[in-house]
Amino acid sequence: MPGGAASSSRPARPRPERPVTRDGPDEPVLTERTIGAFATTNLHELLQASAIRRIVVAGVATSGTVLSTTRWAFDIGYEVTVCADACGDPDPQAHTALLNESVYPQSWLGLWRIAHVLHSAQIPELQPAAG
Predict the structure, then answer these.
(1) What pLDDT digit, counting tens, does each position of 112-130 carry?
(2) Per-residue pLDDT tens for 28-77?
(3) Cα–Cα distance between 107 and 100 in angstroms, integer?
(4) Is residue 112 a contact partner of residue 101, using CB atoms and an 8 Å limit?
(5) What is the pTM of this model?
(6) How are strands ordered across the β-sheet holding 116-118?
């Protein structure tokens, strides 16, 4: 909606009180209230405090949250990788157009313009630790 926050007539889904996280109870859990992960959370501050400059983005809405979060992260200086096989979209054509340069190579909307678009097997941070 131009000039305002998007709203929905659907009731909000309840979120768990405290999600189970991989790194235990001290791992930060953020709840975004907008389409991207940066606008209404302290994600940028948490990443800065940990000296993190490279992020991996994945999600269920390539044309929504993944696109918004990737663009915002790029704009504020992060090196961004989009994990293509951990993304999806209700519109398969939009999903493919955003991730696959060969679909619309002249498009400025494609995520490949601002991020590395890789499969999980190609992202070192997602590989099991040796040893």
Answers:
(1) 999 999 999 999 988 888 7
(2) 778 878 899 999 999 999 999 999 999 999 999 999 999 999 999 999 99
(3) 11
(4) yes
(5) 0.79
(6) 54-59, 79-87, 116-118
Both tokens assigned to 88: 């999806």
Position 109 in a domain: yes
Cα–Cα distance for residue pair 20/60, rounded to 1 Å: 19
In a domain, 116, yes or no: yes
Instruction: CATH number of the domain at 65, please.
Output: 3.40.50.850
Q: Tokens 């930060």 label which residue?
A: 28
Q: How far apart are CA 109 and CA 20, in angstroms?
A: 34
Burial (CB count <10 Å: 0-12, 13-18, 19+), residue 27: exposed
Q: In sequence order, which ranges of 3-76 are alpha helices (DSSP H)?
A: 43-49, 67-75
Within a domain: residue 17? no
Structural domain for 79, as ranges: 43-122
Q: What does the pLDDT look like over 68-102, one tens digit per residue?
A: 999 999 999 999 999 999 999 999 999 999 999 99
